[in-house]
Amino acid sequence: MTSTSRLQARGLVRRFGSTTALAGVDVDLADGELLAVMGPSGSGKSTLLHVLAGILPPDSGTVTLEGRDVGRLDERQRSLLRRRSYVFVFQFGQLLDELPAVENVALPAMLQGTSRKDAVAIAAQWLAALGLAGKEQRRPGELSGGEAQRVAVARALITGPAVVFADEPTGALDQQTGHEVMDVLTRTTRAAGASLVLVTHDEQVAAWCDRRLDMRDGRVVTDQVSAAAAQGPAPVAQVTR
Ligand SMILES: Nc1ncnc2c1ncn2[C@@H]1O[C@H](COP(=O)(O)OP(=O)(O)O)[C@@H](O)[C@H]1O
Ligand SMILES: [Mg+2]
Fold first, then answer.
1. Cβ atoms of residues 216 and 20 within 8 Å
2. C-beta of residue 151 within 8 angstroms of C-beta of residue 108
3. Which of 22, 37, 46, 47 gets mutated to test ligand 1 (max ligand atoms within 8 A of its CB)?
4. For the chain, which domains are there?
5. What mean pLDDT is predicted for residues 152-160?
6. I want to staple 166 with a disulfide (CB 3.0 to 4.6 A). Which of 75, 89, 158, 212 is the partner?
7. ∠ CA 166-167-170 to the nearest 5 degrees?
């Protein structure tokens, strides 16, 4: 690896009753690196994401974010770290239905102490950069699935997180719309300098990332650099921030 490790995991083990969801997993994620996590259903992908993000404690092993051992923090420090450094891109169903798009995007910035006025202005810039100018006041239910996903991407990136996590975020979309959203997510994450851990079943989407892990039965079976981190389809948005 040529750059520093932004996120490092060593020997992660996590059991649920008699099921071993993670059976000793190591991960290194460099600054700005995009990592695809693949593997069959039940192989431990979601568990890995939750443990890396500090949402789920491992039974053993360590997670280090920018040099800090996440497991050694108390709950208050951990939730602070989660809010600052980590973000999940949820399905658009996770957007707040009663809030307009611009307020959904502004919310994480406001929770970090940005004034409402500033947060809304920055959120509007993000929406414009993601091709949603003019749709700021629409509620999630008044947007297409792909548009709502782009709102979720904007919401994930507005706080400038160190690592973005996304768990099969396009499952509910048709393939073309899913590709558009993944293209926006990968390009925007790159432009923002964040690292990305992306669970996907789609080979093409994985090829847009820098590296891919393949999991089976709670283990990483291959960890390989993409031949040439391929570019996605035609750019959907140019992000300047
Ligand atoms: N909260 C849980 N309680 C019990 N078993 C779980 C829980 N979460 C995951 N598992 C089990 O752990 C294994 C890995 O699950 P998961 O990480 O969700 O896999 P994937 O995301 O690759 O489909 C599966 O056998 C699953 O049933
Ligand atoms: Mg899963």
1. no
2. no
3. 47
4. 5-225 (3.40.50.300)
5. 89
6. 89
7. 90
